[in-house]
Amino acid sequence: xxxxxxxxxxxxxxxxxxxxxxxxxxxxxxxxxxxxxxxxxxxxxxxxxxxxxxxxxxxxxxxxxxxxxxxxxxxxxxxxxxxxxxxxxxxxxxxxxxxxxxxxxxxxxxxxxxxxxxxxxxxxxxxxxxxxxxxxxxxxxxxxxxxxxxxxxxxxxxxxxxxxxxxxxxxxxx
Amino acid sequence: xxxxxxxxxxxxxxxxxxxxxxxxxxxxxxxxxxxxxxxxxxxxxxxxxxxxxxxxxxxxxxxxxxxxxxxxxxxxxxxxxxxxxxxxxxxxxxxxxxxxxxxxxxxxxxxxxxxxxxxxxxxxxxxxxxxxxxxxxxxxxxxxxxxxxxxxxxxxxxxxxxxxxxxxxxxxxxxxxxxxxxxxxxxxxxxxxxxxxxxxxxxxxxxxxxxxxxxxxxxxxxxxxxxxxxxxxxxxxxxxxxxxxxxxxxxxxxxxxxxxxxxxxxxxxxxxxxxxxxxxxxxxxxxxxxxxxxxxxxxxxxxxxxxxxxxxxxxxxxxxxxxxxxxxxxxxxxxxxxxxxxxxxxxxxxxxxxxxxxxxxxxxxxxxxxxxxxxxxxxxxxxxxxxxxxxxxxxxxxxxxxxxxxxxxxxxxxxxxxxxxxxxxxxxxxxxxxxxxxxxxxxxxxxxxxxxxxxxxxxxxxxxxxxxxxxxxxxxxxxxxxxxxxxxxxxxxxxxxxx
Lengths: 174, 499
Prior knowledge:
The structure holds two protein chains of two kinds. Chain A is an alpha/beta fold. Chain A has helices spanning 27-38, 99-110, 135-153, 157-165, and strands at 12-17, 44-49, 65-72, 79-84, 117-123. Chain A has one domain (12-159): 3-Layer(aba) Sandwich (Rossmann fold), CATH 3.40.50. Chain A has a five-stranded mixed sheet with strand order 2-1-3-5-4. Chain B has helices at residues 54-57, 66-69, 78-92, 102-134, 145-151, 153-174, 194-224, 226-231, 298-301, 308-314, 321-334, 344-364, 415-418, 420-435, 442-454, and strands at residues 15-19, 29-35, 41-48, 183-184, 187-188, 238-243, 255-259, 265-270, 279-282, 291-294, 304-305, 383-390, 393-401, 407-413, 471-476, 482-488, 494-498. Chain B contains 15 helices and 17 strands. Chain B has two domains: 3-51 and 422-498, no CATH class; 54-418, Cytochrome-c3 Hydrogenase, chain B, CATH 1.10.645. In chain B, 40% of the residues lie in helices and 19% in strands. Chain B is an alpha+beta fold. The longest helix of chain B is centred in the first third of the chain and has 33 residues, at 102-134. The radius of gyration of chain B is 22 Å and the shape is globular. The two termini of chain B are 35 Å apart. The chains are: A alpha/beta, B alpha+beta. Chain A binds chain B through residues 1-5, 18-19, 21-22, 25, 48-51, 54-55, 57-58, 88-96, 105, 108-109, 127, 129, and chain B through 72, 75, 126, 143-146, 149-150, 153, 156-157, 160-161, 163-165, 167-168, 176-178, 199-200, 202-203, 206, 462-464, 466-468, 490-493.
C-alpha cells in the first residue's frame, strides 16, 4: 500500500511506537501484537516503528481515525487516553517526534486539518536496553489492551472523544 | 594533508572548544578544537564516544540469528547489516553468491536498492538540505527539514515521499519498514506477490523523475559556488568500493577495487573473503572508532574513503542510463580523474539515488522477483564473509562458527569506520582554513558539522534517547578555567551560562 497517490485501504490507523529491546518502551508495539491477535482488522491498519518521524505524517492520509500508542513514564495511571491536536513543539528537530508534531507536519504539507487522532499512553517505568517488561508495565499493558480492544470495536470519533474527555479511564461502554 | 593538527604540543596551554554532539548525523560524536591565544587551531579531532561491543555479544549465538540480530546495529541502514550477515551465513551453509537462487539474488538486490534509496533520501533531504539550501551558517531555526518544508514545500515533500517509497520497497520485500526479515541462509523466505509488485510499480516513474530532479538540484547548488564547494573540507585520498566484474557501479555484490588520489588502481577485483590480507585496522587512544588502512600502503598513506563519492569515483560506468549520464557529467566537472571535493559526496549520493530508482523499476519488471525457488543448500562451512556496499560505504561482516553452529568469532568493519580518517582530515581542513584565527560562534561551528555530515556518518542505532541530546559549547582558558558556555537544551532552547 504505497501512499504517494494518497490511496489508502483501511480507514483506521493504529500506530504503536517504541523499541522492543528497551524494557517498557516496548509497550506500544506489544499492544499492537495483542490487537493483531484479538481484533477484527478488516478496517484497521497496524503500523509499528521505533519512533515517530516526518514521513509518518503521510501515514495519516485518508484516514478517518488514528490511534497512536506509546509508553510514557509521565503517565499517572496505568494508561491514559487523550485527543491530539497539531502542535509545533521542538521535537521536530529530533529523531523522536511527538505525535502532535507529526500532526503539525501533516497540516503543513497537506494544507488541511488532520483526521481525528488520539493517543493512548501506557505507563512505563524502566527503559533500559536489553531489559524485558517490568512487572508493573505488564499489568498496565493488560489493562490497556482490554481498553484498546473495546475501543477498536467501535471506531467512531465522537465516541472516542467522549471517552477521552472522561477523567477516569475505564473500559468503554460500547 | 592536515595530520599535523591531530595532536598539538603543549596541549595544557591551549583553549579547548567542544562541539558535542555533532547534530544531524546518525549516532553520537563530538569535535574538540584546541586553540592558542590568537584563536589559531592547533588540534582538531572528531571523537566517536559510543561503545558498541556488537562483535562481542553476538558471540555465543547460533549463526541463523545473525541477519536479524545485526539489524539492531542501526535504525537507518538495518537492511545493509541484514544482507551483509546473510551473505556471510550463505557461506556457512555452503552457498557462494553465484549459487544463490536467481529469485533470491534479485529480491535481495531489490531490498538493497530500497534501502539505499530511503537512506540517501533521508540524508540529503532531512539532514543536509537545510545546510545546502539556507547556507552553512544560517540561523539555527532553519536547520531542519521542517524549515525546508516551509520554504521549499514541493521539494521537501518529494524528499519525504522518496524515503517513504524506499521504506515501502523494504516493507514489501522483508515484511517491515525497519528490522524486517527476508534474507535467510542460502536465500530468501518470501518473494513478492503480483499485487505488491504492481503497487510499487505504480509509483516507480514518479520516483525516477524526482530522483533525477534531485541530481539537478545538487548539481546546481554545487556549481553555483564551484570554487567554494570544491574546496570546503576537501582532502585528497584513496578510495575503496565494490565494483562489478566489468568495472560498473555495484551495491550488492562484487570485487574490491581501490584507487589512489590520481585515479591509479591500487587493487582490483579482489575477492572480499580475503579482505584480511589487504585491510588492517589501527587503534588510537582518543576515540572508540578504529582507523582502517590498506596494508600495502601502510598506516600513514593507506587510509581510504568509502561511500557514494568512492563508488562513483571508482566505477567505470553505471548500468542505468540516467545515472550514467549524471556520472559522466559529475566526473567531467572536476578536471582530473578523481573528484576529491568532500561536498561532492552529496552530488554522488544523488546519482546513486537515481541509479536505485532506475534499478528498482527494472527489477519490478523482472518476473524472477515473483519466483518461488528461493533457498539453496550446500555443505556446512565454519567461516563466512559477507561484504556489501551500504549507503555509507563498504560494509564487512566476518563470522566463524563451531561444530554446533554457534558463533565463536565476529569482525565487522562498518562504512563509517573506513571514513574515520577522512572525516578527521576534513574537520582539520575546515578548522585550519575556515575557523582558525576567528572568534568562534555557533553558526561558524556548524561548518565543522557540515564537513562531517557530508560523509553521512552512521554512529549508532535508533533510540528514543537520541532526541534528548543537548548541544554544549565550552570555552576554556589556558589555565583550564571555563570562561564561556553555550547550551542548547533538549527542547531546543539556547542558553548562555556564566563561566
